DNA sequence: CGAGGCTCAGTAAGCGCTTTCTACGAACCG
DNA sequence: CGGTTCGTAGAAAGCGCTTACTGAGCCTCG
């Protein structure tokens, strides 16, 4: 049933090589022949056999993108930016959902490597685990050796690897955001950190701590609460903050999604934002301006970072191996941060602790 | 650099057939031999060549999932359900983002077909366009002929095709939702339909119209507004409704995302939900209970639908070709719908029209 | 008018794997 | 002790494609 090149060739009365040439257009073929072949191609409903082509040509037309969470808009922006570049280079993008699991990340990298993907883009932050880094570095090495380009977008490639990286200035952004809060007069700040042992979380925490220290404030006098990067995590955290009547005038969420959750649950508990408590986000996702009040946040140039990563991955942009492209972060001051108000405990009418 | 089976065989002092057998474990191999081979495999850092294997075995280990929008939680739920089943069957899931484009949908189907994917799951609704249906039907036929199973999840497979379908009762759900609103006393309802010429939108509209007609109300006395399925579309629509001071006491959004947008923009304009205007959603996504007030919506069993689709796709569950599995919809009555209030125009202090 | 150049197309050698067929011992049995 | 069976592994034939390499015509030009 499935027609092969040979079938088409027979029907068109030519050799299979000619059919291949018509298909790929990389060698001259006389117009008349081309027409006959094209005809036969259509008549037989020919569909090229990808594996066979990939085997013979030692390359394929797929670009793999690894994302932590397909339903997180952060990755949506990244993935669609990369996809656009891939399409430009006639590659088709396949997105693999790792669910934030380090093992799945490796599994998919290996799968893509096995499939001889043209390139692999690993997006988002990753585990800070040494074993994982080492295994990742191994895979990167093998991939590069087999001609699969690897690009990291959102974290640095393992040291000494040939893979390029596009990284966002999480550290600087977090520091700037903290300085903004300090300038507004906040001193008691609750930080919802992202998932622990995660490069992105750590960089943001480190940036914030540095800004605090530089302002002469002991970072440990602030609250550091482990949370996730989802809206649900923010809702949960918001409820917890209120329940514990935490003594703070500002909450810095791990990202905008979390911030929107925090705001929703604070308001549901009667806490006004920003009158009672200021809330800040991170990333400047579309949701940041959908929320009421609009979020003060840190804008990461995700789209252009994705495009850069995509261009490196497709080879449109040639770079030195192991290059690290740094993308700046930029403060977006909007409505959700104001001068310190009564704080959480004040707002809900509980005795302020400490 | 890239070690092949033959390299491994040479190193282990066996034939490549033996190495293949060790790799696949489908033929008996003496323990001692196996050990030597395994050793060589590791020493040479062997990575199987997917295309070569796929070519020889005429099948691959990938399951493709087509989604309209990777960053829409509706598809997130679907994709992760399918992925779980795929993982169970030792297949790896690749998600392709079609951006709702009919052309991309076909392109990706063809890509997956070319790659000899084990199965393809097409999720979500699709264009009602005849040409597209026909081309889809063609591809399905070819896929099946080549041993790639095709499953539709969220819309029916083209007529007479071998592909299975898992469909959600959009029609019945929309009817039930409308009846709920009618029972609450609403008569002037604004419907934000999803994207036009889209199977899901149409089914929901048809269900609502039927319920209206059955209640003796002329469907055309209600407002039918084209919108999208995103939160942004809801925000936009909400603003429009207020701006035009539309005379209605209830808004039925295309889905929960849109509903959350509508609520946000209505409230931003000083309209109370549900006191002034009731708002209903569709799908019962996690966001439905995150929103304030919690959304009255229609629950679609997305997760179990996805699992079913996944099981059919992987072959875990054997079904007759062309089977259509229907999943029921279920009303979820929560806070966002109440008895009719002053309506939109009343709330914003504009003269009520008509 | 024959040599050299061009254009176009066929031949055939793989790409790296799976799998059938075959072969070789060793063990078993009557 | 010859013949059968069983367990194990090699030889080799593809899978469907790409791509040198080769060569047949035909044109051009000295």
Q: Can you give keywords for this protein?
A:
Rossmann fold; 3 domains; DNA-binding; four-stranded parallel β-sheet; 14 helices; alpha/beta; 354 residues; disordered C terminus; 434 Repressor (Amino-terminal Domain); homodimer; six-stranded parallel β-sheet
Structure, explained:
2 copies of one chain form a homodimer. Chain A has helices spanning 5-12, 16-24, 31-43, 50-57, 73-88, 102-114, 130-145, 170-183, 199-214, 231-243, 256-268, 287-290, 302-314, 343-347; strands at residues 62-67, 92-97, 119-123, 149-153, 164-168, 189-193, 223-226, 250-252, 278-280, 297-299, 324-327, 330-332. Chain A has 3 domains: 5-48, 434 Repressor (Amino-terminal Domain) (Orthogonal Bundle), CATH 1.10.260; 59-169 and 302-329, Rossmann fold, CATH 3.40.50; 170-299 and 332-347, Response regulator (Rossmann fold, 3-Layer(aba) Sandwich). Chain A has a 6-stranded parallel beta sheet with strand order 2-1-3-4-5-11, sandwiched between helices. In chain A, strands 7-6-8-9 form a 4-stranded parallel beta sheet, sandwiched between helices. In chain A, helix 6 (102-114) packs parallel to helix 7 and helix 10 (231-243) crosses helix 11. The first copy, chain A, has 14 helices and 12 strands. The first copy, chain A, has 354 residues and is α/β, with parallel strands linked by helices. Chain A is elongated and about 85 Å long. Residues 349-354 of chain A have low confidence and may be disordered. Helices cover 45% and strands 15% of the residues of chain A. Chains A and B meet through helix 4, strand 1, helix 5, strand 2 and helix 6 of A and helix 4, strand 1, helix 5, strand 2 and helix 6 of B. Chain A binds a DNA duplex (30 and 30 nucleotides) through helix 2 and helix 4.
